[in-house]
Amino acid sequence: MALIMRDSTNPFDIPLSGLDVVAGYGDGQFVWSSAGWARFPSPIVPLSIVISGDDRGDILDVEPGAAEPGECPRWADQFNRPGRRRPTIYCNRGQIGAVRQAMGSRPFDWWAATLDGTRDVPGAVAVQFAGESLTGGHYDESIVLDPAWAGRAPTPAPALQPEPTDPNQHWWGPYVAGADQVVELDGHCHAPVFREAGHWFRNTTPIATPRPGEFAEWVLANRVGGAWFVMDESGGPQGQGPQGRLPVDQAFWIDDSVTDSSGCGGTTPPELAAAGRGRYFSI
Fold it and tell me: What is the pLDDT of residue 211?
């Protein structure tokens, strides 16, 4: 279940009704007072935003007048917030590429800013979709897509178990030689590359290193030797192939660990199947 988060330069301007998470400033010109923070009793989750890479907080604000992408690695390396799973970077969709490039292999969560009503941003744990023009007050509103990010994780569901099947009974049988598990989605998942690592493969032959801006548009994943790979149906590393399913001898595969499927309902192929997007098989 998605949560509602609000933020403002003035804590006294934020409505409490329906509020699950509040984000306020821990440094800078608009730093919140103790009285301001005290307006938000438990179970509202308080998160602190900082605008300088030298200051401690839950979230680093990357935008004009605040931190720059180049400050993110230093801030993340010093991150130490009990109860927080990892550093969070706030920025808009136009800046996330520069942030990811600066962060390299460092893990982080992304609070995305759209402010135009857009709530669905692949790869984001929360989306600031409404500014003052949409909220009607001196505050912004976000939807928290991952309750665990705010420490409000739901009770875990039982682990999804693959169902045994004969690959010869499926269209995907010829594509998954050597696999021990397979996920077939009901529809396409657009999974962008978020870090330069791993490989694109033609069958089992590495042919290129994935680059940010590339993606896999996939409905089929296979697990080989404990690692998941997804099949790009739109044409491989340049994204210029024919639309629709590629023949077996033309299909491209990519390490799932370098793509981001969170916008499709999960971060791994089995999670997508568990979210009702498809089926999970053992072969």
Answer: 87
The dotted CATH code for 3-150 is: 3.20.20.80
CA distance 40 to 270: 37
Which residue positions in the chain have pLDDT lower than 50?
155
* Separation in Å, CA 28 to CA 44, 65, 157: 23, 10, 42
User: Structure pTM?
Assistant: 0.57
Which tokens sit at 157? Answer: 């569901």
100 touches 68 (CB < 8 A): no
> What secondary structure letter does DSSP report for 123?
T
Residue 72 CB neighbour total at 10 angstroms: 25
Residue type, 185: L
pLDDT in tens, 186-237: 988 988 888 788 899 988 889 999 988 888 889 999 999 888 999 988 766 7
Residue 274: CB partners within 8 Å, gap ≥ 6? Answer: 157, 160, 266, 280
Residues 6+ apart with CB under 8 A from 126: 5, 111, 112, 142, 143, 144, 145, 146, 149, 150
How far apart are the C-alpha atoms of 34 and 26, rounded to whole Å? 10
Q: Which burial class, exposed, middle or buried, applies to 1 when counting CB atoms under 10 A from its CB (0-12, 13-18, 19+)?
A: exposed
Measured in degrees and rounded to the nearest 5, phi and psi for residue 265 equal 115, 5
- What is the maximum alpha-carbon separation in the chain? 66
**Strands, sheet with 215-224, edge to edge from the N-terminal-most edge strand:** 163-164, 278-282, 181-192, 215-224, 227-232, 252-255, 200-202, 205-208
Instruction: For the beta carbon of residue 185, count every other beta carbon within 10 angstroms.
Output: 21
Q: Is 91 exposed, middle or buried, given 0-12, 13-18 or 19+ CB atoms closer than 10 A?
A: buried
